[in-house]
Design goal:
This is Ice-binding protein C-terminal domain-containing protein. The protein has 247 residues and is of the alpha+beta class. It folds into two domains: 44 residues; 200 residues, no CATH class. 18% of the residues lie in helices and 36% in strands. The chain has three helices and 14 strands. The strands form three sheets. It has a seven-stranded mixed β-sheet, with no helix packed on it. The protein has a five-stranded antiparallel β-sheet with strand order 7-8-4-12-13, with no helix packed on it. The longest helix is centred in the last third of the chain and has 24 residues. The two termini are 14 Å apart.
């Protein structure tokens, strides 16, 4: 009986040790706070993190501007090397099975597909500031482009919540714009909203925001571990049944 209990305990500990830690991070970007730029801009960001993989979903949620399009999206992360190296090396869409060479991060699974990445880079307008990563849509027709999703993989270890929550903010030299850990440049905005009823508003603007903890961490067992655990339980059941027959 003690052997059975010990075997069950070992299986349980193996299940916990082999599970991946899941973290949810979100952000709500708002703007534009500058005079002469449309207000009531909103962009929602959800990041689903498991281990070294972060799944990003960015959605423009601004009904006041029916023709709005997402032109650029940018974000910062906490420096994993504390300034002792160049952390923001990256590769896009590496071949299957590739470890992305010497890059610290790689990006893949873009939807829509035609996005370019630069690091570091200067967003369009809004003064001068330099985020860690900037995505720019490269297609010829970006009308009503209101969403972006992609996968980010770290080659330098698993992500943790503080990689996002403790990221620095990019500060614009345009004091009226402010700062944020992430942001979006939006185009095709209505030029006659409540801010500029005479139609004198700019047709572009920025939405800025900060990360927040969306829940977690929680333990998510890997499928292979669940299969192993189930096999172990089945084996324990068969052993117990055999002992009953022999008794």
């Amino acid at each position: 009986m003690y052997k059975l209990l010990w075997s069950g305990l070992l299986l349980f500990l193996g299940l916990i040790a082999s599970s991946a830690q899941a973290v949810l991070i979100n952000a709500q970007l708002t703007g534009d706070g500058r005079a002469g730029n449309p207000d009531l801009l909103q962009v929602d960001v959800l990041i689903d993190v498991t281990g070294n993989v972060a799944e990003w979903d960015i959605t423009v949620d601004t009904t006041n501007h029916p023709d709005i399009k997402l032109d650029e999206f940018y974000f910062n992360l906490r420096d994993p090397f504390n300034g002792n190296s160049s952390p923001w090396t990256f590769e896009t869409n590496p071949p299957a099975g590739s470890n992305s060479g010497n890059a610290n991060f790689y990006f893949t699974d873009f939807d829509p597909a035609d996005w370019l990445i630069d690091s570091p880079a200067d967003p369009v307008g809004g003064g001068t500031f330099t985020p860690n990563f900037l995505f720019e849509y490269s297609g010829s027709n970006v009308n009503n482009l209101t969403s972006l999703s992609f996968t980010m993989v770290s080659n330098i270890g698993d992500f943790v919540a503080d990689d996002f929550l403790m990221a620095p903010s990019s500060v614009s030299t345009d004091n009226d714009l402010g700062s944020g850990q992430l942001g979006a440049h939006l185009q095709s905005l209505a030029v006659n909203d409540a801010t500029c009823p005479d139609g004198s508003c700019s047709d572009s603007g920025f939405a800025l925001g900060v990360y927040s903890d969306g829940g977690g961490p929680q333990q998510i067992p890997e499928p292979s571990v669940l299969a192993l655990f189930g096999t172990g339980l089945l084996g324990l059941g068969l052993i117990g049944r055999r002992r009953k027959r022999l008794a």
